[in-house]
Amino acid sequence: MSDRASARKPDWLRVRLIDGEPYQELKRMMRAKSLHTVCEEARCPNIYECWANRTATFMILGNICTRACRFCAVKTGMPTELDLQEPERVAEAAEQMGLRHCVVTSVARDDLSDGGAAIFAETIRAIRRRLPLCSVEVLIPDFQGNWDALRVVMDAGPDILNHNVETVERLSDRVRAKAKYRRSLELLRMAKRMKPRIPTKSGLMLGLGETIEEVLRTMDDLREAGCDILTIGQYLQPSPQHLPVERYVHPDEFELLKREGLARGFAHVESGPLVRSSYHAHRQAQSAAAGAAAAAGSAAGDA
Q1: Distance (Å, whole) CA 229 – CA 169
Q2: Handedness of CA 269, 272, 273, 274 (dihedral sign)
Q3: pLDDT of 82-105, one tens digit each?
Q4: Per-residue confidence (pLDDT) for residue 138, from 0 to 100
Q5: What is the pLDDT of residue 296?
Q6: CATH pick for 11-295 out of 3.90.580.10, 3.20.20.70, 3.30.1330.60, 3.30.930.10
Q7: Residue-wise pLDDT tens digits, 224-244
Q8: Cα–Cα dist 134/160, whole Å
Q9: Where are the chain's structural domains?
Q10: What number is the average pLDDT over the span 26-34?
Q11: pLDDT (0 to 100) of residue 136
């Protein structure tokens, strides 16, 4: 039985609104520095919690995406913005917030020859200059399979390289515009080949019509590509023009999938109805680092 988005959302998807001073302060700072966040642009349900805790995911390269994915609320069209000073402003904001873990993502910029890779790299370097102890996670588009562009980002040394497959292979073409499931897997595989020590990460949305068997198969595909961290959350329809929700997945099923992911060897699995790619990202980074250290110690012992 399909549970369409028009039906009442279950209790576990209720979000507590915390519109306090930390939230308002962060909002003012983002506007003053002419910065965008995916928290706002993608209408993330966790924005009040995260902003109240002074954490945010910066969205670089403007706020207009060259793709029109059927799940995403970010505006689509032909971008006009390419701000070479943006990396420094992101770094200033991260410093002002006193971040220990910073997440940077972007719209897809298929109009640029490198997909915006150079701006990603400079943003990583700018944050490191101001906050040497801050870990930096980047959530990148697929760069249309341009692995030279990927290398530019990897050479800048992010602490985590994130690229989402978003959904299972059968639904990928329907859900994502231009992006290809197998190309996303290859990106994760190439990133691991370029910099084996940098953890890779990917994410899935549930509730689009996938089966549990397809989700498990996707986990296997991601592990085969060397993916270290997995996030799994509930798809929520951002507007009537977007894909409808086929099913609201119960928290118990998310917990089951977390156990399945850990059994397959992911260093960390964040799985729950309100989970998004950067939700509790600092915790994911710490868990992955601990897992990598344990694996290295085990390998040394075996030697």
Answers
A1: 19
A2: negative
A3: 889 999 999 998 888 888 888 899
A4: 96
A5: 46
A6: 3.20.20.70
A7: 999 999 999 999 888 888 999
A8: 12
A9: 11-295
A10: 66
A11: 92
Token pair 């949305």 in the structure block, residue: 205
Q: What is the predicted pLDDT for the residue at 72?
A: 83
Find the mean pLDDT for residues 262-281.
85
Q: Which residue do the tokens 């059927």 mark?
A: 70
Mark 93-124 as b/e (b = at least 16 C-beta within 10 Å): bbbebebebbbbbbbbbbebebbbbbbbbbbb
Q: Which residues pair with 143 in a beta bridge?
A: none
C-alpha to C-alpha distance for 85 and 151, rounded to whole angstroms: 22
Residue with tokens 């990396």: 87
The predicted-structure confidence for 193-203, as pLDDT tens digits, reads as follows: 999 999 999 99
Structure tokens at 1: 């039985």
Q: Name which of 219, 151, 157, 158 is nearest 190 in CA terms.
A: 151
